[in-house]
Hints:
By secondary structure, this protein is of the alpha/beta class. The chain has helices at 24-38, 58-74, 85-93, and strands spanning 4-10, 13-22, 45-56, 77-81.
Amino acid sequence: MHGNVDMTVEDGRATAALSGDFDMSATFTVEPRFEELLAEPELDALRIDLSRLKFIDSTGIGVLMRVTDEVRRRDLDFEIVPGPREVHRVFEVAGLADALPFAEPESPEG
């Protein structure tokens, strides 16, 4: 299963929910969607939800880093909802878990 992104925008606040595998083949679909979203002048905030991701590789992380750079350049409100443990571990190993604005989990997992 390849990655998918569902984007919603309401009152200048966007949510991008990623699911499946965020690998090289998924970037060809996902990255242009982020580019279109970030081209919106009315955008005030972006929330990226990784909670439904099954897998992310370096190309997926690269897309998220480019999106993060653009969001910070535009000074938008921004947060990333962490993915499942195995997905978030990739960010930890890459040294990015503290560099990206990950939201606190809503409920602790046992």
